[in-house]
Recover the amino acids of this structure.
């Protein structure tokens, strides 16, 4: 297994060895897919509705696909010409196997000693979605521009896995499967993923909403001018975390991690920052699709490992509601019609 490539700083200038900015004026479209565990079913079902309506491949409409965690799997699948309907089906089918519920005492021991879920079922799900041959192919052989985010815990740095279509000779020589599993290795849920000699963990820690990553890759590795880049982001129907001031108190480490949902709160805050920054940088060239659940829906999909029939129905219902909301908007339609 080949270790991930070392990533030098990207030179965004047009001088020296950097490639010149591409001159034609056609809009460049980036699709950014958020992390969120089983809630990625929302993203997949929304894209399924779009493909069904427009009778086309969603991935083919974008010059660059970027994703984190479950969004990394969806982005990789689209880059490898997997229909969104298949992605939708595989997430719904394999989600309950990945996040299999165990007895309470066993869960408590797992949370205290080791992550509660293994990567075996997740590996099966990725292979079932992509097909074994495509899952095991080198990322450097993927022709579609694709970026998947992770964190290199061994070296304490971001790790962006790039396809051959994005980075050329500098693309990562790891398998698509390794890149997806590295991005999905969420702390407290899954063990780190070893890639080469390095331990990788969830890309959501740095880019749970990867639209800024998509913007920088489009301008950096693909050398498109900023004013040409249009970014569509699809979230995962997360509810913003928060707590009343009187209830916070002085929580211990365990309370911060379990009761206060520190991990989920950090992902939500980081996602909100990325959204705000993209809106400033891109203005009306940034379009975000998401649907925060209503109060009565929160319990079914609050955590990224909830996979009950109610969770499935809720996520798909939210996706259908989003489709009805966005389908007639000119700014949305331009991503698929022009």
């Amino acid at each position: 297994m080949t270790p991930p490539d070392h990533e030098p700083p990207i030179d965004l200038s047009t001088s020296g060895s950097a490639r010149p900015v591409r001159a034609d004026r056609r809009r460049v479209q980036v699709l950014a897919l958020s992390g969120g565990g089983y809630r990625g079913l929302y993203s997949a079902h929304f894209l399924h509705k779009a493909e069904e309506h427009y009778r086309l491949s969603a991935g083919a409409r974008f010059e660059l696909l970027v994703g984190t965690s479950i969004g990394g799997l969806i982005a990789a699948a689209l880059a490898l010409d997997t229909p969104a309907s298949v992605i939708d089906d595989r997430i719904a089918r394999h989600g309950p196997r990945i996040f299999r519920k165990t007895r309470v005492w066993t869960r408590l021991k797992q949370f205290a000693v080791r992550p509660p879920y293994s990567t075996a079922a997740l590996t099966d799900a990725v292979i079932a979605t992509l097909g074994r041959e495509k899952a095991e192919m080198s990322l450097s052989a993927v022709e579609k521009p694709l970026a998947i985010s992770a964190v290199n815990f061994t070296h304490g740095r971001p790790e962006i896995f790039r396809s051959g279509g994005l980075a050329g000779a500098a693309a990562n020589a790891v398998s698509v499967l390794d890149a997806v599993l590295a991005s999905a290795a969420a702390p407290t849920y899954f063990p780190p993923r070893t890639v080469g000699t390095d331990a990788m963990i969830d890309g959501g820690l740095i880019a749970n909403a990867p639209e800024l990553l998509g913007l920088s890759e489009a301008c950096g590795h693909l050398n498109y001018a900023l004013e040409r880049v249009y970014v569509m982001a699809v979230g995962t129907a997360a509810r913003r975390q928060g707590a009343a001031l009187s209830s916070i108190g002085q929580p211990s480490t365990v309370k911060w991690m379990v009761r206060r949902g520190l991990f989920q709160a950090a992902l939500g805050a980081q996602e909100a920052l990325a959204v705000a920054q993209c809106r400033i940088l891109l203005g009306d060239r940034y379009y975000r699709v998401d649907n925060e659940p209503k109060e009565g829906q929160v319990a079914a999909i609050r955590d990224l490992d909830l996979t009950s029939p109610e969770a499935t129905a809720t996520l798909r219902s939210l996706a259908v509601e989003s489709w009805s909301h966005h389908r007639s908007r000119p700014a949305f339609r331009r991503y698929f019609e022009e």
Remarks:
- Confidence is low (pLDDT under 50) at residues 1-24, 242-246.
- The beta strands are 28-33, 64-68, 146-152, 157-162, 193-195, 198-202, 229-234, 286-289.
- The radius of gyration is 19 Å.
